[in-house]
Amino acid sequence: MATFLYRLGRGSYRLRWLVLAVWVLVVAGVGAAAATLQQETNPEFVLPGTESQEAFDLLEERFPEMDADGGSAQIVIQSENGEPLTAESNTAAVDALAAVMADSPQIASVTSPLATAPDGTPIGMLSAEDQTIGVMQVAYSEPSMELDEETIDYLEDAVADAEDSGIRVEVGGDVLQAIPETSATELIGIGVALVVLIITFGALLAAGLPIITAVLGVMLTTAGILAATSFMNVSESTGTLASMIGLAVGIDYALFILSRYRSELAKDGRVEDRAARADAMGRAVGTAGSAVFFAGLTVIVALLGLSVVNIPFLTEMAVAAAVTVLIAVVIAVTLLPAFAGFAGKRIFTGRQRRRIAAGVHGTKPNGGKRWAGFVTRHPILVALVGIVGLGALAYPATDLELGLPDAGSSGEETTQRQAYDLISDGFGEGFNGQLMLVGDLHDGVDAATAAADVTTALGDVDGIAVIGQAVPNEAGDTLLVTVIPETAPAAEATNQLVHDIRGVLADDADADWAVTGATALNIDISDNLNDALLPYMLIVVGLAALILLLVFRSLLVPVMATLGFMLSVFAALGALVAVFQWGWGAELFNVDQPGPIMSMMPILMIGLVFGLAMDYQIFLVTRVREAYVHGADPKTAIVEGYGHSSRVVVAAALIMISVFAAFIFSAESLIASMGFALAAAVVFDAFVVRMAIIPAVMALVGRGAWWIPKWLDRILPNVDVEGERLQRHLATDAPEDERELVGASK
């Protein structure tokens, strides 16, 4: 591996114009595909194999007039003069709003809160106590994410005009999801990353190269996602996650290779020699590039493992992010060397080149060596402090509550939250999370009989506020029953209610019943995620442990890496609970409404954090192993390895933290919580686990850290991450010009 990557890096440096031309063609091709094939983002949310999805499919088939997949809005109206909405002073405004909405583009139906049946029976939603709050039900003919901007603008204008007529109007429902969110979070992360890189390299040109290559990788993935919208449904969050991961690993991977390249050049002292620069790049890609390859492979395995959850939109997000990581690796080992070739000796500043020529560049005391020396002298103290500290941070995770957000978790100033609160005040919290029961009647069963039976059965279930009238379809073979819970959609009691209803109706003799609705769908998502968590961990940890076994040829190092990762994850989950669930520092971290943690966060964190944690494990410990296989004793190898790599790992961690932390300010709760959790996980993993606990434990076990059974050592392929075989190749098998360069560098 190292020898192949050496040739690839050296060749990319020397043939930089050819490499650049190939990448220009790739970028142009992908860009043209995106411009030609791009369609509107159209995520079709499905949850295969769940009861809520089966009910939704049956509803769509048997009740086509309901247009079940169309967007919806709940326009909540409140009287501001204290009189009922049925009073003459308010009816004109309500009727005018209903008439205006009936003319909206892409409209399917509008039900006014003042609507009545032909016999005069009220059918609209009015608060029973004083009738000062009403809900206008609006259904659209297209899914919410396919609504035109004109339709959204029409709704906003209609609401504004209605408020001018003397009533308060707030809007809930999924239709507002179609309003695009603008964000500059990526720019914040890039800005901080650039500052860190300038401090690390001390040269603006060198600092800019990782930014350029990372942004290019993200742009390629984004363009690919846009082109893919012509062939599949794509969630809007897909591109966000890809950008978050792509920027972080893209900058880090380029940073590691470029740092090794500058280190090789400074060691040789021949910055002015073009051939020496090409050879230094080859050695950098052959060694640091090997670590990048296996680190990227680990991240990709962790991401693709998310497919076991069997939630299509989560799989899409994971695949897009995995492709971004793959592109980042390829760019780092090909395009980055080409860019370095164009930069030439300017990869160092003039002052740095003069110091290299004088042999004094990089001779200052190394903080990494001093820290590693302290750790190896006091390994028990360092390990205990690190483990106990992370254990304390993990404690809040014992109170972890999982759920999916609803409008009740939105910011108090948003119209969605205002609509949610008004409905709760006027009708009860359960009206924000109505359940739909769909019954497929058995042959020969009368719809009226089945309706009476199901109403009786539901009457024995605790937690139901209202049981709606059972409605048959035109064919008379299906029943639809609306159930209103007593509690809020995200409440644990509502979760239990859904399971209780399913249990009661499981043995119904009249029909096969299924429960659906947004609340039931969220519960099924949470159940799917919980069921998939253990298989996912076994698959991902098993495959990643195998990769680490190949890289380090050790049994203990992969075990230490995995246990350290678990500490990081639980500590990050604890911090997530403390901030996003308990509300500690809520204002500081842009948390509008503390509440349950999103149900997909644990499995997403496990996948992403495991991959990123293994990055640092590979980058740090490969340099330790490199020193060890070249003859250093275990403690000296730790000091030497950390002396070489800790500075750049710290810089890489700070960059990742800044990229992730910038997403905390996203208005989308999933992205904000994910940004916080990943930033916290990198802090704990990079600075506590990898920089303290791992070297402390390695110092305690000594040579045992590198023990592997001889039979296993014989059958494992030698991937040569530390470059031992590469050195032999350069000394014996390489062409004459390469051997001369190696001899000159010694």
From TrEMBL:
Protein's name in the database: MMPL family transporter
Organism classification: Bacteria, Bacillati, Actinomycetota, Actinomycetes, Glycomycetales
Transmembrane in keyword set: yes
Bilayer disposition of the protein: Multi-pass membrane protein
Source organism, top-level taxon: Bacteria
Domain SSD: 212-342
PANTHER family recorded: MEMBRANE PROTEIN MJ1562-RELATED, MEMBRANE PROTEIN SCO6666-RELATED
Protein family: Belongs to the resistance-nodulation-cell division (RND) (TC 2.A.6) family. MmpL subfamily.
Main location: membrane
Location(s), subcellular: Cell membrane
Segments crossing the lipid bilayer: 187-207, 214-234, 240-259, 280-306, 318-344, 379-397, 533-552, 559-584, 596-616, 648-665, 671-693
Xref: InterPro entries: MMPL_dom, Mycobact_MmpL, SSD
Keywords: Cell membrane, Membrane, Transmembrane, Transmembrane helix
Entry-linked Pfam families: MMPL (PF03176)
